[in-house]
UniProtKB/TrEMBL annotation:
Species name: Myodes glareolus (Bank vole)
Region annotation Disordered: where it falls in the sequence: 1-21
Record SMART domains: VIT, VWA
InterPro entries referenced in this protein's UniProt entry, alphabetically: VIT (IPR013694), VWF_A (IPR002035), vWFA_dom_sf (IPR036465)
Pfam families linked to this entry: VIT, VWA_3
Start and end residues of each VWFA domain: 312-479
Gene3D superfamilies: von Willebrand factor, type A domain (3.40.50.410)
Comp. bias intervals (Polar residues): 1-12
Domain VIT residues, every copy: 32-162
SUPFAM superfamilies, per the entry: vWA-like
Role played: May play a role in tumorigenesis as a tumor suppressor. Altered expression of this protein and disruption of the molecular pathway it is involved in may contribute directly to or modify tumorigenesis.
Name of protein: von Willebrand factor A domain-containing protein 5A
Source lineage: Eukaryota, Metazoa, Chordata, Craniata, Vertebrata
Amino acid sequence: QFCSEGPYQSRSRLSEKPSILQQHQDRNSVNMVRSSGLLTGVKDPVALKSIAVTLSINDFVAGVSATLNYENEEKDPLEAFFVFPMDEDSAVYSFEALVDGKKIVAELQDKYQAHKRYEEALSGGFQAYLLEEDKCSRDVFCCNVGNLQPGSKVALTIKYVQELPLEDDGALRYVLPAILNPRYHLSEQSVDSSLDLKTPIFPLEDLPYTLSMVATISSQLGIRTIQSNCPLSSIDYIGENKTSAQVSLAEGHKFDRDVELLIFYRKVHSPSVAVEMGMPEREADSLMGAPSAMVSFYPDIPEVETATKCGEFVFLMDRSGSMKSPMSSQNRSQLRIDAAKETLILLLKSLPMGCYFNIYGFGSTHEAFFPKSVRYTQETMEKAVEKVKLMLADLGGTEILTPLRKVFRKPPIPGHPLQVFVFTDGEVAETFNVIREVKFHSKRHRCFSFGIGEGASTSLIKNIARVSGGTAEFITGNDRMQSKVGGPLCIKSG
């Protein structure tokens, strides 16, 4: 938990009502969608003016500093909180707020102590901030920003580090998330989350904010090329071996899609070492005072494909309403459900003859192609492919736990270990329960997950694969689909 406080020059006090955090903890769950950014107690967005991002990538680790500028355009004071989407493999280490020229720096505290100090500060008429990880999703951080006067200008700076994944084609991938996709909550479940928010929608040409991003990439491995799904300025390489480069988004870019950078190193399989000196003002033998080193080793181990007819392959396809959305704001011609179906068909046509398989569609309800898994033949494969082509995003919400339990509780087929493939674009409120269920049955199955479209939950997608020994992939367009599907296809029979 991060908490800080400072003087608040206003006559209004908030001790007569519970904090926003408490309001969200006390209410019952309802069906809503989620936004990100600075929001009021009634879940309306505070006016965002601009976003500036500084990105530093050293070998396989990214350091990110993001500053978001807001202004309270309302006539009354308001209490606001900040929702910041992140990758599951990120760690926040700094949070600062600049309110009307006054700078406040957060410090790391025990969770109970941080909550207590935050409530005491608000009751005493102080400006207070509380940054915490959302309890229902580890890829989102929430921060109670406290009291904002009419006309107040707020600059929020959050800094975090993140280990970057390597794609199957050798690309190092960094994604700066846009507003995350809606997440569905079971109506009967009591949810302890501050993320039931309304998503602001603007025509792309009328977005009231801008994004600027400058990225510096450094590695002794040498940089072969840098690609992006967004227009970039000219790339400036430094050194004869291109061991460093600087690039920025082209001027006038709007924050209307995920910003993706793909970095290809020349010698990606060579070991490398990064050294950071300790902070001189800290004790020499302390954590922050001592030097630290990071060794990166990504060996080139040839894949060994085993010819086998063993395995039960069960595919879970998200058929919720949100799967009718485009893959991205940039790629509106392809719907998420169509991209997921294309990926599923690629997998179906690559299964070994003689194995067993079944396909489930899930939403508010679920349905299966077959009463139980059937033997894979040319006939059953063709029948399944035709059914997949007819699948629609028409099953309502995103409730995956029930069909997962149904799959796990079916008796195993002797000699055919279970492999589960999940295709989804969102996250359910019971994310941790889903992960727990997958982990509980991991001794007899592996789970391979595919996040479909921009904003897919990294917490859900990565963890259900991680706890079961599978792999996770994110499909944001069809240009790289073959390489993303290739990974699970190579190891599914291992």
